[in-house]
UniProtKB/TrEMBL annotation:
This is FAD/FMN-containing dehydrogenase. It comes from Methylorubrum salsuginis. GO terms for biological process: respiratory electron transport chain. Keywords: FAD, Flavoprotein. PANTHER family: BLL6224 PROTEIN (PTHR43716:SF2), D-2-HYDROXYGLUTARATE DEHYDROGENASE, MITOCHONDRIAL (PTHR43716). Transmembrane segments: none annotated. One of its GO terms (molecular function) is catalytic activity. Belongs to the FAD-binding oxidoreductase/transferase type 4 family.
Length: 482
């Protein structure tokens, strides 16, 4: 039962937003207290669902006055504990789902933070344009969460991360004031570019309520290929060849190990083997073009034929229709889900300089197998931008809980190699709670001090998603996994 001050806060919010949008019952709160990976289970006073920026500002101001923490949530598709509340209010942005403006000439659109990513893409398409940010959870993920975590996804090669796709933001600050930085300008050197403080901050510095996004010419020709390779090093060599031959037309290069494809074919729905025989590694590649008359299929065929003659490619197939392209993409997109059928999975979202990627895979796999014989490594992901999801599947027959209890030990092994090779321990999923202390241990001390100073300046009472990303002196230790 909430104390008197908390009860007054809930009454104040209920009076402004209505009882339908301020819920303290267990049924309403339950889906907001845990993420899909289920590593942490939180708790909260109430779920608040404002329907406008003004209502978000009112909620945050009231919480600031009462010194009650606020954890913002969108689609709750995060993977690192960043959206799990540990006390205070859960502020859902899902009712802020309006398209505010589209400007095809200026190649921009302004959307509210609670708009589903797939709906943002559809709105851009209706305007004859492309919004390229894309990842597997785009049917439920919200654009605000993608910006707050600086999400990457499947088209970073050609278009960049979320940060590269944002022209402006509207943000509610920790005291309830609203910063309107939504101008759709490509050039604006009038002072500090404040939006970058909030992009990737995971709701710890301010709550994003709307964004002005970059749009691009719609793709008119797209071809998807699935390639069998002798090794990860051959995959890197193929990437270099395709990048040189296709330039910005190379929009995806996804790496899949043999074990990864085997899992998809064993447990996936509506999938079939794309190639005859087995290969040590695979790559899904995509070429696209907005040019009328472009023939990306012929271009991809020629590039893969050259790579085959050079001994880099053992076998390949190219989709002949949109349905076939989607079937090839499904082999990659189902990988995270099918791992569950093989037992526990210890996951690492890391990035490396491309020049060290093959070295990392060889060294990290060897080190992990030495630490636990029978372990089944499954490194996959966005090879072209250096981002690998270095996942470890439990040995056959091992107890799942006993395996997951080794998470910290494998973090030390994998992250130690990443650090030595000048990589990052948090490539695209964010820091959240699960990597907070790792960040404190591995970050440049001056950089970490700047992060803490920025947090203290913008949120002096540590009320916005407290305990995530960087820990202030009064933060509790991370909650134990569920």
């Amino acid at each position: 039962m909430p104390d008197t001050s908390s009860a007054r806060l809930i009454a104040t919010l209920t009076e402004r937003l209505g009882a339908r949008h301020v819920r303290a019952d267990a049924e309403a709160l339950a889906p907001h207290l845990v993420e899909s990976r289920g590593l942490y289970r939180g708790h909260a006073l109430a779920l608040v669902e404002p329907g406008s920026t003004a209502e978000v500002a009112f909620t945050v101001a009231a919480c600031a006055q009462a010194r009650v923490p606020v954890t913002a949530q969108g689609g709750n598709t995060g993977l690192v504990g960043g959206g799990v509340p540990f006390g205070g209010i859960v502020l859902s942005l899902n009712r802020l789902n309006r398209l505010r403006a589209v400007d095809p000439l200026g190649a921009s659109m302004t959307v509210e933070a609670g708009m589903i990513l797939a709906d943002v893409q559809a709105a851009a398409e209706e305007a004859g344009m492309l919004f390229p940010l894309s990842w597997a959870a785009e049917g439920t993920a919200r654009i605000g969460g993608g910006i707050a975590t600086n999400a990457g996804g499947l088209a970073v090669l050609a278009y960049g991360n979320a940060r590269d796709l944002v022209l402006g933001l509207e943000v509610v600050l920790a005291d309830g004031r609203v910063w309107n930085g939504l101008k759709a300008l490509r050039k604006n050197n009038a002072g500090y570019d404040l939006k970058h403080a909030f992009i990737g901050s995971e709701g710890t510095l301010g709550i994003i309520t709307a964004a002005t996004l970059k749009l691009f010419p719609r793709v008119l020709s797209r071809s998807v290929g699935f390639v069998g390779l002798p090794s990860a090093r051959a995959a890197l060599a193929l990437f270099e060849r395709l990048r040189a031959g296709a330039d910005r037309g190379l929009t995806a290069f996804e790496y899949i190990p043999r074990f990864g494809l085997e899992m998809v074919l064993r447990h996936g729905i509506d999938v079939r083997a794309p190639l005859e025989g087995q290969h040590a590694a695979y790559a899904l590649v995509e070429l696209s073009s907005p040019r009328p008359g472009a023939d990306t299929r012929s271009e991809l065929e020629a590039l893969l034929a050259e790579a085959m003659e050079a001994g880099l490619v053992e076998d390949a197939t190219i989709g002949g229709s949109a349905a076939q392209d989607a079937a090839l993409w499904r082999l990659r997109e189902m990988l995270p889900e099918v791992q569950k059928a093989e037992g526990g999975s210890i996951k690492h979202d890391v990035s490396l300089p491309l020049s060290r990627l093959a070295d990392f895979l060889e060294e990290a796999e060897a080190a992990c197998l030495a630490a636990m014989p029978g372990l089944r490594p499954c490194p996959f992901g966005h090879f072209g931008d250096g981002n690998i999801h270095f996942n470890l599947t439990q040995p056959i027959g091992m107890d799942k809980a006993a395996f997951l209890a080794e998470w910290a030990r494998f973090n030390d092994i994998v992250h130690g190699i990443v650090e030595r090779m000048d990589g990052s321990i948090a490539a695209e999923h964010g820091v959240g709670l699960i990597k907070r202390d790792e960040l404190a241990r591995t970050a440049d001390p001056v950089g970490l001090d700047l992060m803490r100073r920025l947090k203290a300046a913008l949120d002096p009472h540590d009320l916005l998603n407290p305990g995530k990303v960087v820990a202030l002196s009064n933060d509790p230790p991370p909650a134990l996994p569920v």
